[in-house]
Amino acid sequence: MVYHPSTQLAEISVAESVAQQRTGANIVEYSVSELANAIKRTLEDGFGYVRLRGEVSGYRGPQASGHVYFALKDEGAKIDAVIWRTTWRRLKVKPEEGMEVVAVGRVTAYPGSSKYQIVIESLEPAGIGALMAVLEERKRRLAAEGLFEESRKKPLPFLPRVVGIVTSPTGAVIRDMLHGFNERFPVHVVVWPVRVQGETCAAEVTAAIQGFNALPKDGPVPRPDVLIVARGGGSLEDLWGFNDEAVVRAAAASQIPLISAVGHETDWTLIDLAADARAPTPTKAAEWAVPKHSDLVEANTTLGLRLMRSMRRVLEAARAHLKAAARGLPRREDLLALPRQRFDAVEHRLARALLANTRAHAMRLARVSARLHPRLLETRLHRLRDQLRALGRHSRDALSQMTAARRSRFERVAGRLNIEAVRSRVHRGSERLATASSRAEQAYRNRIGHERARLAGLSKLLESVSYQGVLKRGFALVRDAEGRTIRSVRAVAPGAEVQVELADGCLDADVRDVRQSGEAARPRIADSVQVRRPRRKRELPPGGQGSLF
């Protein structure tokens, strides 16, 4: 059992209070807030930091504020736990439902609900078995989503121009990989420096994979054709950052083919299952990323020789085939003899046909010209002119008839029109307008009177609730040197300058002593407050009102 001086004092004060109650003495009165805060301080002073082992219960992830609330339990008890947002961000291992953990934090109380809780500062799993259980459960859940399927993995490029490496820039891993690239095939290497161990490892590796994928193809930093996530060997805790769910999802969503080279050949992490290829060591990953230059040169030479021999054989075969085909073709004179003979025969027949065609057209023209005479055109023109004149006469007659009908209709309508009817209608409209104008003016006056009465009522209500009315009844308003309202004596220290506002002005004073309600009597207020000089009442801003609150 742990004893603390504050606990002993609390027990003594309780015993004295019971004795006083039995003897009839007065008991000290506490408010609910004062008692709750006293219990909170007693818990924090009595326990301080503790190391607590238990099972995570009721875990639902971070709230909207970023804080995390859950409970730690064992076979016989349960305690509420809270992890603040700033602490949650730097935790290496995140809690999960049913996970057995060892937490280090402060025991405190929450006065709002009269509950005690532990504010966790650090969290770690209770042994390797707990980590393996979390790892297996996460592996099963991500596999159910299809992130480890072979069908979604992309092939590695044969000869990448740019290789992106996500690793620590100061370790031996990057030196071994660069040495492997120089020996096999020198390429452009872009290194994204990250921490490969610790609290920020998972976030930095995730940001590196997403950052490489976000690079534009023609940007100032070249976009890699293949990515390598590399780290040396280590324990399960050292490699835990590469088992983070965010890292696995980033590797699965990468558009650039990704090689995982985390740990040695016997080590494995979840990023190995989500990557497009898993190398046993970082050096082997460099060998997989690029081919060997000497092998390429040898293969290129071999393929070049094979190409030349194949082309020579194809050309020789084509030449022999062309010679054989040429021997089977007939001579040019034999091919052109028959068409030439036909052309000569048609040439002789063409001259005679042109002469016969010309004579036939001349005879036809002579027959037609005999029937043509200007008198036929003149007769047709006279006939068309007579038709045009007849149509003109018909048009004039129709226009005269239509004009006469519309004139008679207009005269009949003009006889029915009378100016008196229009004048009477205008007079009736003027009377209606005058009546509406008088009604509108009366309504406006009534509205103005109603609003004036309402404004007067509101003005009286404003005067009744204004704090100046309270000051006129003998109260005072106290402000500090910066003009803030003082609501409690705890906010004032001896020697502070205060301003006391009364109904007819303001006073500047210095505080000599401070006492709370219920304490023993002290010197009079005249001895505690020194009046320095009266000052006029502070002017309020236009349209505003001061506040007691």
Write structural notes for this entry.
It is a single chain. The chain has 549 residues and is of the alpha/beta class. Among the domains are: 31-126, OB fold (Dihydrolipoamide Acetyltransferase, E2P) (Beta Barrel); 140-290, Succinyl-CoA synthetase domains (Rossmann fold), CATH 3.40.50; 468-535, no CATH class. The protein has helices at residues 5-23, 32-47, 85-89, 128-144, 172-184, 201-214, 245-253, 270-274, 282-289, 293-328, 332-371, 374-416, 419-465, 467-472, 525-528, and strands at 49-57, 68-73, 78-83, 100-110, 115-125, 162-167, 188-193, 226-231, 258-262, 277-278, 477-480, 497-502, 505-511, 529-535. The two termini are 48 Å apart. The model is unreliable at 1-12, 523-534 and 540-549 (pLDDT under 50).
CATH H-level name of the domain at 140-290... which superfamily? Succinyl-CoA synthetase domains
CATH architecture of the domain at 140-290: 3-Layer(aba) Sandwich
Order of helices and strands: HHEEEHEEHEHEHEHEHEHHHHHHEEEHE
Largest sheet: 5 strands, mixed, barrel
Structural class: alpha/beta
Which residue ranges are poorly predicted, with pLDDT under 50 across at least 5 consecutive positions? 1-12, 523-534, 540-549
Highest-level CATH class of the domain at 140-290: Alpha Beta
Fraction in beta strands: 15-25%
Briefly note the CATH topology name of the domain at 140-290: Rossmann fold
Strand arrangement, major sheet: 1-2-3-5-4
Q: If helices are DSSP runs of H or I spanning 4 or more residues, what is the number of helices?
A: 15
The amount of helix comes to: 40-55%
How many strands in all? 14
If you average the pLDDT, what whole number results?
81
Give the overall shape.
Answer: flat
Radius of gyration: 54 Å
Distance between the termini: 48 Å
